[in-house]
């Protein structure tokens, strides 16, 4: 057998490293091992491995898997072409599935089967080699994932008619709906149907932008305007010129920052940080939120004049609970998509799986359904997806700070928020996507808050 490629194995168990070094040296040209993840950036730069086998937990007594997810992101940031296979215990399968969504190519469960481990790693190496067919297949899967599916529910079909009428205009649009209903998909669809479809579609998660970088992110900056401004930077308004600017989670924009956005919308121009020259912008603005902005106006946390500016056309997406007839068509669509993506044979649902899908409340909406089907397809065997493959959340309703134990004594809002986040993660069994949905925030915002509170 011809040995090819460089493999990096990162695991804190030195006995495992010794075993894998012996096993895998027969299949890879070089097998590099490390017992600590802090060496990963250096090894990526120096050794340029095609494949990394990455353990998900390193700190003693810590088994959340968040370390593995962090280092997965670092690997994909430093060397995107490197394929990452996650090494995990059976109990961490939920986290491994999260890792697949973050860019890992596959996962292997400990204790491992030697032939399966070798097969997965060699398959990961093959993905690093150029093949036109693979590129075409990946593109087809990506295109299908982005395609808007309207369904058959009356509420959605009436929304579709409005979208078809307003898309060709340049009117500002506000999209509302629960987390996971597909507000970003609708924004993409509006852009696709508009006269700006050949222009850029620039998406901004307002909940993920820190206050100190708000102006720089949206409007850009000139070199030397602040300490780390080593060169000119193009902001999102400029990047979206001639196309569509989508501001997701607009309700997360702090009150004192709202006048800057309002000015840019009113004057259709912006000023870069460190500059005095207004720069014109030609964008179509779409905003989205799961919050009630009118209530926020009454509470004094959102400017009424800004609401009027972004709310020329108002579109509301119904929850999945309000369109139950679309659950099975969506599920089958996701089965087809992920069976293609992960090379599985599954193509239909068993009767008991159908009943479980129809009976579940889907508080996480389409996003929860998509995540559930993706995980089920990965874990499925054969052509029929069964009820046992469906790992459904135990969360009964969207979580909030009030869900924290009423007897718990908290002194600050930060303590309330931290406790709510911990409880959401616990009730979601470590599934951060569902925890974020339950809390009414984006996954990126949840990551930021977890980092803030050291969770």
Concise account of the structure shown:
This protein is an alpha/beta fold and 455 residues long. Helices cover 44% and strands 14% of the residues. It folds into four domains: 6-129, Response regulator (Rossmann fold, 3-Layer(aba) Sandwich); 154-316, 3-Layer(aba) Sandwich (Rossmann fold); 320-389, Helicase, Ruva Protein, domain 3, CATH 1.10.8; 401-453, Orthogonal Bundle (Arc Repressor Mutant, subunit A), CATH 1.10.10.60.
Which helices and strands occur, and which strands form pairs?
Elements: E1 6-10, H1 14-24, E2 30-34, H2 40-47, E3 51-55, H3 66-78, E4 83-89, H4 93-101, E5 106-110, H5 114-126, H6 132-146, H7 154-166, E6 173-176, H8 183-193, E7 201-205, H9 214-219, E8 220-221, E9 233-234, H10 236-239, E10 244-248, H11 258-267, E11 269-271, E12 278-280, E13 284-289, H12 293-299, H13 304-310, E14 313-316, H14 327-342, E15 348-349, H15 351-359, H16 365-379, E16 384-385, H17 413-427, H18 432-439, H19 443-453
Parallel strand pairs: 1-2, 1-3, 3-4, 4-5, 6-13, 6-14, 7-10, 10-13, 15-16
Antiparallel strand pairs: 8-9, 11-12
């Amino acid at each position: 057998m011809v040995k090819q490629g460089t493999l990096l194995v990162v695991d804190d168990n030195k006995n495992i490293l010794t075993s894998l070094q012996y096993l895998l040296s027969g299949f890879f040209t070089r097998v590099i091992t490390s017992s600590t993840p802090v060496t990963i950036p250096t090894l990526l730069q120096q050794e340029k491995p095609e494949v990394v086998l990455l353990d998900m937990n390193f700190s003693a007594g810590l088994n959340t898997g968040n370390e593995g997810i962090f280092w997965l992101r670092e690997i994909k940031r430093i060397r995107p072409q490197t394929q990452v296979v996650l090494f995990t215990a059976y109990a961490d399968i939920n986290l491994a599935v999260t890792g697949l969504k973050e860019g890992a190519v596959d996962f292997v469960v400990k204790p491992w089967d030697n032939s399966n481990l070798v097969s997965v790693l060699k398959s990961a190496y093959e993905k690093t080699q150029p093949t036109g067919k693979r590129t075409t297949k990946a593109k087809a899967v990506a295109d299908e994932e982005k395609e808007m599916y309207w369904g058959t529910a009356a509420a959605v079909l009436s929304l579709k008619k409005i979208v078809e009428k307003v898309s060709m205009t340049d009117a500002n649009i506000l999209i509302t709906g629960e987390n996971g209903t597909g507000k970003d998909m609708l924004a993409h669809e509006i852009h696709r149907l508009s006269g700006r479809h050949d222009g850029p579609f620039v998406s901004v998660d307002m909940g993920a932008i820190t206050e100190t970088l708000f102006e720089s992110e949206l409007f850009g900056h000139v070199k030397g305007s602040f300490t780390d401004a080593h060169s000119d930077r193009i902001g999102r308004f400029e990047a979206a010129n001639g196309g569509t600017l989508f501001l997701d989670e607009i309700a997360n924009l702090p009150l004192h920052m709202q006048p800057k956005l309002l000015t840019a919308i009113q004057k259709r121009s912006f000023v870069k940080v460190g500059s005095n020259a207004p720069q014109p912008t030609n964008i179509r603005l779409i905003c989205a939120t799961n919050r009630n902005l009118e209530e926020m106006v009454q509470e004094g946390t959102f400017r009424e004049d800004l609401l009027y500016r972004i709310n020329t056309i108002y579109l509301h997406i119904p929850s999945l609970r309000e369109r139950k007839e679309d659950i099975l068509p969506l599920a089958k669509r996701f089965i087809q998509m992920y069976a293609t993506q992960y090379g599985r044979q599954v193509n239909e649902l068993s009767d008991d799986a159908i009943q479980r899908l129809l009976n579940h409340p889907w508080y996480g909406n389409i996003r929860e359904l998509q995540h559930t089907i993706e995980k089920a397809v990965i874990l499925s065997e054969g052509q029929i997806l069964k009820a046992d493959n469906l790992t459904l959340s135990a969360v009964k309703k969207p979580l909030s700070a009030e869900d924290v134990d009423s007897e718990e004594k908290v002194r600050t809002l930060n303590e309330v928020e931290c406790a709510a986040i911990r409880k959401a993660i616990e009730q979601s069994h470590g599934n951060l996507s569902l925890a974020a949905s339950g809390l009414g925030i984006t996954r990126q915002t949840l990551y930021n808050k977890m980092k803030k509170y050291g969770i």
